[in-house]
Fold:
Amino acid sequence: MSEWIFFLHPPRDDFVATMTDGERAAFEAHATWLRSLLTEGVLIVSGPCLGKINTGVMIFEAPSEDAAQRIVAREPVTSGGYMRGDLRPYRLGLLRGRDG
Structure:
């Protein structure tokens, strides 16, 4: 099993404060999707960057790049064209509670 990081890049600054109704609906589906990954034991952590640029970040586990691609392909916000996704391999280096 390996870790992956998925960035969700917003289409504009102050995205969270200026979302349209369609974007809000996509984010409701996104939250449901994230909760299902958490329940399945796939999701490690997720959340938005605060401030003017609201890039989303999620770190999750998948056995291969193909599996990671299949996971993020189901993500409602990026697959719906509301944000741009950026998947990269990731290595969880130090973790509070695990590494000292």
Observations:
- The longest strand covers residues 2-9.
- The chain has a mean pLDDT of 96.
- The chain has three helices and four strands.
- The beta strands are 2-9, 43-48, 56-62, 84-90.
